[in-house]
TrEMBL record:
The organism's place on the tree of life at top rank: Bacteria
The protein, known as: Helix-turn-helix domain-containing protein
TM ranges: none
Manganese in keyword set: no
HTH araC/xylS-type domain residues: 196-297
Keyword Transcription regulation: yes
Alphabetized UniProt keyword annotations: DNA-binding, Transcription, Transcription regulation
InterPro entries, sorted: Homeodomain-like_sf, HTH_AraC, Tscrpt_reg_AraC-type_HTH
Amino acid sequence: MDNVINFDTVGQYNAFNNNETLHPLVSVVDLSKSNRRHNARQNFGFYTVFLKEIKCGDLKYGCNYYDYEEGTLVFIGPGQVIGIENNGEYFQPHGTALIFHPDLIKGTSLARHIQDYSFFSYDIHEALHLSEGERKIIYDCLSKIKFELEHAIDKHSKTLIVTNIELFLNYCIRFYDRQFITRETAHKGILQRFEDLLAEYFQSNKPQTIGLPSVTYCAEQLNLSSNYFGDLIKKETGKSAQEYIQLKLMDVAKEKIFDKNKSVSEIAYELGFKYPQHFTRVFKQRVGYTPVEYRSLN
């Protein structure tokens, strides 16, 4: 197994890349100052955003690879591992990394909403591809953060740094929304494949052997991370992936209820419910009637 270098503090990562530590909890790292490296796998104890300027190898994240281009943003959450594989060739890294420790944002608005930035859980191959104009905005945000780090620390420093990080992340949300639309070719057919996947699932014996289909299961079958898949479905349909699955589940359930030769318990089991009571409760929440009432009405 490859060795993994663990970075628990901002200072450790700065030292690794020959950057000065201006603040113990946040840094804008100039990767061009780093020594030449290869095949390095790294585990971060903080939030990390890489802005890669040139291609220098294939990023590997978990079991997936990402053939990244110039000017892309890669987001890594605390505890995640990332590595670079380039057939053993040495390279000089170029680009910038924004890193900030979770302790920096404690007690702030950003801490309360950090989970909303779901791209920290995207797979590497779902990175953000920037246009020239977007890249300028990103650099502007980074320059403001860097300015505050180089400024003498005062009572305003933390607020201004965290506010600019939040602004940076909010721009990233906007750019991802744009990417969901402009990368239509890459995403083409995801919704149809999702529909086909659910149809095949309920026509098989998987509900009885696996249970109800989960968002994670569907995302894995479509080779997407759960968060990216969920965000993509939300943009396409206005509904969460879980809501979409439940709507499909109710459509199948309604059809099955018309078969009066089957009891409600049998239908519940066929759909993947462990307990008929759970099926009855979910059906009434979604349809407004119990399965027995719905059968009587129709």
